Protein 1
Amino acid sequence: MTPRLPKILEHMAESRLGISCTVTAVEYFHATLKRVQFRGELGMETFVPGQEVKFRVSDDEYRHYTPTFFDLEKGIFDVLFYLQGNGPGSHWASTLEAGDTARMLRTGGKMRLATHNRYHFFFGDETSLGLFRCLKEAVHQKGHEYLGILELAEGSFGWPEKLDVSVDLVPRLHDERPAQEAIAYLNDLHGLLWKTWKKASFYLAGRAASIEAFREALVARGVSNDRISTHAYWSDGKKGQLINSRQ
């Protein structure tokens, strides 16, 4: 469901809680994959990997995003936008250029790194890249380990490498068998390897149907539900999808 607020309430929230930010850098990894860096007086004591920020993208709509990078001391953060061109969030992000201003609101986020666990397993797609890039950096800082599987469209297979996210890649099949290639990969993990990774913390984000299928496969292989975090960013047939955005 697309989040909407009456214009007067949105303006009140922005005027009281919004942080003015300026676009300081724009980088295209692909025509539909754009990194935007923002700078502002963030007024935050801490940033937790997986935490989200929120921007107004039209008069009465907003979108949530997971920064891929956050530097509180310098007051800068990066957001990775997947520009599919079929919604207000995508349109707004596609127009951002250096020197533009926007007001950011801090918010929570469903995905937080399970810092008590040494092992972390990512599953998602193009819309999960920003989140996984952020979590991956936190994993490395703690000296932990991660594995990942991304199901991608054919033209997106080079994206993870450009973002320095080391994961295995499988094709995304738009049919009645979502995540089947990723599940086959999962089922190839066995013996001592699976004994170790079965106890990992699992982070599933992206296509709703694929998340559900992959979660069911994990549970069938003995992974407890309390080790699985999910965040659906998009569903088949719904318009207005954008990377790391609640639609």
Note: The longest strand covers residues 19-30.
Protein 2
Amino acid sequence: MPGRIAFQGELGAYGHQACVEARPDLEPLPCPTFEHAIESVRKGDAELGMIAIENSTYGRVADVHHLLPESGLHIVDEHFLRVRINLLGVPGAQLSDVRRVRSMSILLGQARQFIRDHELETLDWTDNARAARDVAENGDYAEAALASELAAQAYGLNVLARHIEDHDRNTTRFLIMSREPDFSRRGNSAMITSLIFRVRNIPAALYKAMGGFATNGINMTKLESYMVDGNFSATQFYAEIEGHPDDRSVQLALDELDYFTERLRLMGVFPANPRRYERPRPNSD
């Protein structure tokens, strides 16, 4: 029996597609929420979790950064999924029949121009694949779903319009998470170290904490802040840097960071995906 990889959503979700692309040897395990997906890995129901963290059009996925520190899991890889959004309708329906479209708000926000051009009413749904399933069950020509072609196949829907996303390089980045860290691998190019930290309550603490990365020549590719427990004075940071914790320069930078933080935790070490460094090309998909 193959191992399993958990994702948020139902069969046909973009998380399902990411699982198929990145870990075709594992059986996708649908979960209703990111919390359930993380818990499935933590309990051993799945070996890995595929967790969406940000989209090139919509921005970061809400709440995921709050789940990472307490998940007890470790980031072991990343996957970039080219998100192609399709309008899915019941068999027999035409684009001109559609009056309402349902999907998650994050996906509706990635196809605003198409929705405006066709004067469609939007219905915010909990999951893109669930939206497709509900459209199939309702059988209403006037309703359609925004989802993947994988969802169309799963629920017997027709693709009424393909690739309707606002930006032709629309991409979602996923983190692949495991119960155990893996510091043994070395990528063909850069390694990425991810960490979460909370600075001490002293003047210029963040400025001083960042100084160690500059003086040791470490490239920080991501730094995001978010409040802790709704407290305006308690801010936590999620960061990603190029390098491996075994590198001497990274060790020195982390030692300096540790001095100015009251909490510091490594979340994972993984090879940089080549798509991380892709640059847009004219008329390129």
Note: The mean pLDDT is 90.
Protein 3
Amino acid sequence: MLISSPIFDFLFKAAGWKLVGNIPRDLDKTVVIVCPHATWKDFPVGLGARSLLKLPILYWGKKELFDGFFGGVFSWLGGYPVDRSKNTNLVGSIVDIYNSKETFHAVLAPEGTRKDVDKLKTGFYHIAVQANVPIMMIGFDYVNKEIKIRDPFYPTGDFEVDKKVIAQYYSTIPGVQKTWIKNYLAD
């Protein structure tokens, strides 16, 4: 799996992007969430950020991305396919992966799509709670070309409380006007 590359570093910086914050090196395991998921450009920008962080952050992606020729490329870049079409106890399976590893960092986009959504998919939250790992919130600030990394968030186990913390953080990312943020802050 390719984690870091001078090519990714160069392209990230040449495109004018920069990192703001860092994932603490003493964290062995994290669930990393990225919002907004608004464009196909999120993927290459994320690869550049991961390269500069020099952390083995894997990612979950819909299984259709791993079909055909590009499937090998997505796997080589650290992808894990996810079948979202049926109830497969995916959360439990992912928790088992976290529990079986000494170190494990994986990222996903909890919006689940590039379209505007009313609420987040909550699998990331249940994974973090059940695996007893912090959530790293990363914001894609396309206005200022910054990848903003929040300090680790340790979920309480009460999503109704914690969703407000998540929405408050993402409401600070310029250019993010998402329905789910408004809904969570209004609840």
Note: DSSP finds seven helices and seven strands in the chain.
Protein 4
Amino acid sequence: MSEFWAYLQLGFSHITDPGGYDHILFVIALCAIYTINQWKQVLILVTAFTIGHSLTLALATLQVINYSTDLIELLIPVTILITAVTNLFYKVPKSLFTEHPKQAPGRYVLALVFGLIHGMGFSNYLRSLLGQESGIIKPLFAFNLGLELGQIFIVIAVLVAAFFLIELMRVRRHDWNLVVSGIVVGMALSLIIGNEYLAGLF
């Protein structure tokens, strides 16, 4: 149980670590267009992301798939950038409880596909922790559970902040989305420009 708890904590701290804020930025970008009243849409979206990153996290950690670590480190901020940019073109629905029919399916697919990329990024960290341990199924499950708890923590924080500013401070929802997504775009571009893999290509 102590090993399980240790890996659960490591998963939670990894996704919520301000020092490695790329995954935090992605979750923020996913949630920026929603309010707390749309928790069902957020749940579906986060579930799609979870399915994606859980799959590749398991496959990569078990060494079923191989990939370029440097390339993945570049693609992660690219997924952040794309998600945040799509937010800038988001049309606020007339009802808080409905999603624009033309926007929802594509957004869920993006979350799933981008989750596959983030899962490979998570596995880099997990494999470095596992070392020579013979049994990795339990640590893998615990680490993934920790990631989910951390992800939920970030989602709740974003939705509560949105509720406070939009509902209580009367900030326009459109403005909230533009400011948050614009900041994420800038930070994602910074990560891409500073990426060593990209620099090596030129």
Note: Helices lie at 2-16, 22-31, 39-61, 69-88, 104-130, 137-168, 173-193, 196-201.
